[in-house]
Amino acid sequence: MPLHHLMIGTWTPPGAIFTVQFDDENLTLKLVKRTEIPHDEPISWMAFDHAKKNLYGSAMKKWTSFAVKSPTEIVHEASHQMGGDPRANSAETNTRAIFLLPAKQPPYAVYCNPFYKHAGYGNVFSVSPTGALAQNIQNYPYQENTGIHGMVFDPTETYLYSADLTANKLWTHRKLPSGEVELVGSVDAPAPGDHPRWVAMHPTGNYLYALMEAGNRICEYVIDPATHLPVHTHHSFPLIPPGIPDRDTETGKGLYRADVCALTMSGKYMFASSRANKFELQGYVAAFKLRDCGSIERQICLNPTPTSGGHSNAVSPCDWSDEWVAITDDQEGWLEMYRWKDEFLHRVARVQIPEPGFGMNAIWYD
């Protein structure tokens, strides 16, 4: 089928889910539906369940779920408070629901991370028989100054790896048959100023890739088969051009911050992105070739993106081939489609959606 649909949320209210159609023959993108959702629950990170029958959202102070009946029929079913520290849900705190990871294997629990202050607990939710968020079954502790921004399971869904941006470490938990998790251990990031934001894992389960927001690099880790903890291989790759001015001369603050990383369907390539903290600068997207064992063979490219990326610049490879990669930005509200062919990345289509806070991550429905 030449027609595919993606769904995208927003960083700010009013809450809405945007369904965009991509035609891979005519190379066009067009908005086909704006689904209104609760006003104060904009979704800054969304993900499907294993069957793409449910969509889960990180929605300001709530975790939300929607039944997805078709690309244009999305029905709100549940909104749950953040668990753990009771201060997280207060309107007076800046704590925000930032990321969630739905399990692909029974019992299909959903693993959620608050961020900013009072974010020292991960929230685990059970789901109903139809997949809606049901009960907060566990609030497992990290540490007081934790701020998890990304997680990934190993291929067997036995071990859960968390990128702790504010505590500057990577955590490993073991998943129990109930869906709850127990701590295995943690390791500090290689450098004090790295701030791990995102993690991805090779299909073999041998290698973990940690994206460092402040370090603006990808660090490669091998998984210790005995402890299941990640071990840094001392190989890292830049996500902004080496030597580029990366500090504001007046404030001393960083000018760039890396965003996300994701593997293609085949597991042969990985994309990663960075954002700029000033609108007059550009973000970057990088591509990497991965060996069959999972180690990074080489960095193929580091291309500038059209805008800074804003809060976003999130890369989203499609899940049925290596050919298509979506990138969103919320500086100007673009969804862009890139083709990955013969190890070159080129843009084939774009659509601008001038709505507040558009666009966060794009997820592929079909």
Low-pLDDT stretches? none
- SSE-based structural type: mainly beta
Beta strands, count: 28
**Widest sheet: strand ordering:** 3-2-1-28
Strand percentage lies at over 45%
The Rg value, from CA coordinates, equals: 19 Å
Element pattern in H and E: EEEEEEEEEEEEEEEEEEEEEEEEEEEE
Number of helices: 0
Helicity level: under 10%
Average pLDDT, rounded to a whole number, is: 98
* Overall body shape: globular
User: Could you give a short account of the major beta sheet?
Assistant: 4 strands, antiparallel
Q: What is the distance, rounded to the nearest whole angstrom, between the alpha carbons of the first and last residues?
A: 9 Å
The protein's oligomeric status is: single chain
